[in-house]
Amino acid sequence: NNISSKQAEADADSLITSTALTLAKSEQRPIVVIGNDTDLLVILVSQVTQDMHLYMCGENPPAIYDIQAIQQAVGHVKAHLMTLHAITGSDTTSAIFGQGKKKAFLLAQKESLDVLNVFENSGSSKDDIACAGEQFLLKLYGARTFTTLDTYRYTRYNQSVSRSSLSSCLKLE
After folding, report:
1. Sheet of strand 31-34, all strands in order from the earlier edge strand to the far edge
2. Which residue of 11, 30, 47, 58 is surrounded by the most CB atoms within 10 Å?
3. What's the gap between Cα 107 and its chain centre?
């Protein structure tokens, strides 16, 4: 029936998006990706180019999203979208405690976050990446006066302990 298929050997999201991007570039016609996965949307928005007509169709609620329109709406944050998505977690088990994607996105939108450029540079060292990640997390948590996560955590722990009574439950996370 002229239906082709591909089997993902590893990450299906990567295969789905690379296939869609390749088709959108080579076939001068609209391409629609059907799925509800945020990972798919983030990858497509961060990698689509002006000459591609790419859409994503979701089920809950039923909608068709124009990837270029989303790309224009996110503006300059597009360059850091994959990094923000990775740092804030791609699912609830790897999410940062008490912080969400929306807060990280709004932070990147409002402030010039040069620390995020380190993640986009293939020549960045592991130390540069670790330092940039720490600086971003401090900004995300609003810890402007702290230079390390360790000192921020210690200070927040002491504040929590001083506010709690012996009968209350202290959440160490």
Report:
1. 31-34, 54-58, 63-66
2. 47
3. 13
**Which residues lie closer than 8 Å to 65 by C-beta, 6 or more apart?**
41, 55, 56, 57, 58
Measure the CA–CA gap between 158 and 156, rounded to whole angstroms. Answer: 5
* Model pLDDT, residue 93: 57
pLDDT tens string 62-85: 889 999 999 999 988 998 999 898
Tens digits of residue pLDDT in 97-138: 778 888 888 888 887 678 889 998 999 999 999 999 999 999
pLDDT tens digits along 14-66: 999 999 999 999 988 899 999 888 889 999 999 999 999 999 998 877 889 99
CA–CA separation, 102 vs 141, rounded Å?
13
Contacts for 105-108: CB closer than 8 Å, 24+ residues apart: 105/74, 105/77, 107/139, 107/140, 108/77, 108/80, 108/84
**Alpha carbons 102 and 107: distance in angstroms, whole number:** 8
Give the phi and the psi of residue 38 in degrees, each rounded to 5: -60, -35
Contacts of 129 (CB under 8 A, 6+ apart): 118, 119
